[in-house]
Amino acid sequence: MKKLAIVFHSAHGHTEHLAHHVLDGARSVPGVEAHLLRAEDLAQNPDGLTPYDGLILGSPTYLGGVSGSFKTFMDATGRLWRSQGLKGKLAAGFTVSSLPAGDKQSTLMSMFVFAMQHGMLWVGNPFLPEQGQGVADGDAVNRLGSWSGLMAQAAHGAPAGAFVAGDLKTARMFGQHVAQTMGRVGGTIS
User: Fold this and answer.
1) What are 65-76's pLDDT values in tens digits?
2) What's the total number of domains in the chain?
């Protein structure tokens, strides 16, 4: 059984709502055990990541980067970096902002660099945007056109579950894709 952690911070509930859809997708893959973990809890005990074969990182995009709470979690993993405790594990990322672009790419790049510094293997978002196939924008998979990770949009001040159907479908597909990839190539490198 492969173990996958979805590590997230969510101040207003949007990122957490998306994390649950990523979790649903990951849990649909036989042989994968997936768990939601709050970044703020792991900041106190980052060693809690070592039993996992893969991590999906999730943060809102605030001012072009991860949230302060998520950055605190990232910084707390320093001793895991020194011991190479995450080396060889899979990593992926997702983010939410209130605008269609919102500089979400910067947030995913921050997660990517974090994963690379830990010697992890990055899994992207392979799904072609469906608008070119005649699917309405709100229903389209990967409607925001991100291949480095999952991007979603939740309007400013909207309730936590106020995502368009395409973003939620993409979140489930993304969780499933990462879990399937972990089954093919996951594990740790000695």
Assistant:
1) 999 999 999 999
2) 1
